[in-house]
Known about the structure:
Mean pLDDT: 95
Number of helices: 14
CATH architecture of the largest domain: Alpha-Beta Barrel
Low-confidence stretches: none
Largest sheet: 6 strands, antiparallel, barrel
Distance between the termini: 28 Å
Number of domains: 2
Shape: elongated
Structural class: alpha/beta
Strand content: 15-25%
Amino acid sequence: MKKLTARIGLLPIACSRFKGMGKETPLLYEERIQERLSEISEGISQFAEVVNPGQIYTRKDVNLAMDSFYSGKVDCVCAFFLSWSEDFAWIRFLRDMYPLPLFFAHIIPPVTYKNTEGEDAFIEYLSTGGLVGALEGSGSIARLKRPMVYSTCGRLPEILKELEQFSLSAALRSHLRKCTFGLLAQFNEVMWSTYVDPFSFFSKIGPELRFISVATLEDAVNLVTEERVERTIKTLTERYSSRSDVDMQHFKASVQASLALEDVARSNAISMMVLNDVDSVLYQRIGLRPGFCPTPENDGSIAVVPEGDLGVGLAVYVLKCLSGEHVNIIEPAYIENDGTLMVVHAGPNDYTDPKGKTIIARDIRFARSQWKHAGAPFAWYVIPAGEKTLVHISQTGAGTFKLVACLAEAHSMEHQLASYTHGCLSFPGKRTEEVCASLLRVGVTQHYAVAPGNYLKELRQFAMIMELEYVEL
């Protein structure tokens, strides 16, 4: 999955009283502020698509700007005062613009004057007085209680960096409202704490939830050809080493079910499939849980998580969209004697990061079961070393959603815990016991998404925009 690209509407507010001033100077007022506006717009275009209606002076201007934001399907608006200005157009925007994330900034301009007795210096002084306008405009945000607003002040490079993070979270909000999650086939009856209300999920977070039956998966399995299975096995065994005790018939069955699961997702336009892989009906009808999602046919557009946990499915999807990286699902298993944390999870997990370590091995956890393909192989994966962002999402008792995030450091290790994707973590500046105690106090579940890199700033913005309860450890 590629990292999202935002579409940003610009609302550069200017002063009609100053327009036309500076006729006896090298540049008119509007030409001076246009130079800065062009620089700002060019900077934003390096990381986002820009909808720029131009300088805003009048009620008509702001109405046309709002129309362009709507027709352009912007993810957020970046508003700033280029100088002091009358505030009637600004307040009209705050009142009339449909709810969407708003980035409100004072972008500090360079000051080239000391003494304003000369006409040129005085016009430049008027053209750089945006701080007065920003402070004036900030009060109306509070009075109108405009939601999803982030306000800041800084020089252009700092503002661009903050806006990039904010706009990515805003784009994620838009994206979630257009995508579909699947649940196959039901919530996990042995993990009630992971239950999520589908109506709240749709209305507060965005994705439509499709319920997929095991029978639908079974039909899809029967449609997967032997040729596709053989081709996929060839690709997998070329990329990863395989244990000698892997049974080829079970290998084929696992690959066939994995391909079928992704086929079901594609046919239903599902981008996140939440699989209840501890459901007995799945094993009765399919004989195993799919062990090779994502398959080599998957271009990253479909993700799969286990145990019927819609919350961790959302956490994985959020990190995939923010980072464009490989994301894993884990649960803290135990604290080692040296204080590091072993994290694991069975079932479908992204094993395709070339920095990680993958072996095709038997799932010995189910090898002694009565199911048809007991001991079928899966992609046994070790999470690579490096800085990681951990994210947990679940529903609260009040019906809202909670996002808990922290940074960790993954350590290099070899395959150790059979049947599980696993890794070894520590927490810079914190003892593992302190982190776990904090999680217990917050009240979470055992499931977390983990991605390479630091995305805490984006997650803070995302939680604010989505009105999630946010806890950062």
